[in-house]
Amino acid sequence: DGATPAEEFSRLVGCIGDAGAVIGSRWIPGAVVSRAQPFARRVFSRSFNFLVRALFGLRIRDTQCGAKVFRREALDAILPTLGVSHWVFDVDMLYQVTRAGFTILEEPTVWHDVAGSKLRVASTLFDVPYALFRLRLLYSPLSGLVHRWDRLVGHRAFLRQLEAGRLSTRAGPTSKHPR
């Protein structure tokens, strides 16, 4: 969306070293945010990050910044099991990179808010946390419960939400459901 200038991506490539990924961050010292998000979006972003840190143990302050650079080896390791995850796609990807044994570096970036975001805080207030909890369960010994829920009750409703563009899904590497 142009929120991070192209030169920043070149800089991130230069920072990757042996890491599996380098991501830009708006929330660490050294970041330059020329136009901040509206207050409600910032509160939602920080709450989302709190949940990510609590549920997945990712010590990344800005999982949702679009400025991300990955090593080919890291992508090759995770892409076969990566599902479609809409709003939580970034979390799924970063979590899988760490589970595959790669490190993730977080670098300050240059960023400005770009109007036209598809995220509407009010309409996704419950959908996004639901998608995060669901994704976390898929990476736990309780993943079978998610698959049962999808088959018995939630799958149709979940698909309706997904088709409306309001929800996330992750079929998971062992799922029998099509992605």
Give the gist of this structure:
The chain has helices at 6-15, 39-56, 72-78, 89-99, 121-124, 127-138, 143-163; strands at 21-25, 32-35, 68-70, 104-108, 110-112. It has 179 residues and is mainly alpha-helical. A 3-stranded mixed sheet has the order 3-1-4.
Write the layout of secondary structure elements.
Blueprint: H1 6-15, E1 21-25, E2 32-35, H2 39-56, E3 68-70, H3 72-78, H4 89-99, E4 104-108, E5 110-112, H5 121-124, H6 127-138, H7 143-163
Parallel strand pairs: 1-4, 2-5
Antiparallel strand pairs: 1-3
Structural overview:
With 179 residues, this protein is mostly helical. Helices cover 46% and strands 11% of the residues. It is built from 7 helices and 5 strands, in the order αββαβααββααα. The protein has helices at 6-15, 39-56, 72-78, 89-99, 121-124, 127-138, 143-163, and strands at 21-25, 32-35, 68-70, 104-108, 110-112. The strands form 2 sheets. A 3-stranded mixed sheet has the order 3-1-4. Helix 2 (39-56) packs parallel to helix 6. The longest helix has 21 residues, at 143-163. The radius of gyration is 17 Å and the shape is globular. The two termini are 26 Å apart. The relative contact order is 0.19.
Structural class: mainly alpha
Q: In angstroms, what is the radius of gyration?
A: 17 Å
Order of helices and strands: HEEHEHHEEHHH
Shape: globular
Count all strands and give the number: 5
Distance between the termini: 26 Å
Mean pLDDT: 83
Q: How many helices in DSSP terms? A: 7
Largest sheet: 3 strands, mixed
